[in-house]
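Final report, closing paragraph on structural work. Over the funding period we assembled a curated collection of sequence-structure pairs, and we close with a single example.
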Amino acid sequence: MRLQATLLFGLFLSLLLEATIFSLPIFLATAIIIFVLFPSARNILLIFLGAVFLDVLTFRYLGSTALIVFFIFALINLYWNVFNIKDYKIIALYIVFFSYLYAYIFSSSKNLILYLVLYIMLMVTFRYFYNKKLLW
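Its predicted structure, as stored:
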């Protein structure tokens, strides 16, 4: 429960950072991590509200970020149901691929080196969670 609250605070923080300072899709990366670790209806609703708020702060079409986030969630869920694989290495690859796709759609930063750094940071984070037995 404490990890979930920390990640939800991180989601709020990433929303503010993406809207004001960074052009990287850190909100999407945080949302995917929360969806993977805690797939509850409450968390999905909070992610949806955060995505709408991000659209308001960045002056995008209302609901465009939420639509893309839920499309990505549907693809991840479809992958899990078809292949039944829950490996943190594949999830980190998903986050990097979908973050790059998200950046391409919304004309954010498309520097591939930043996404490789994101992948390395995610691998370290997931390995920490995996060693502490906080993942599946």
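Residues 2-131 form one domain. The CA atoms of residues 129 and 135 lie 6 Å apart. We thank the funder for supporting this effort.
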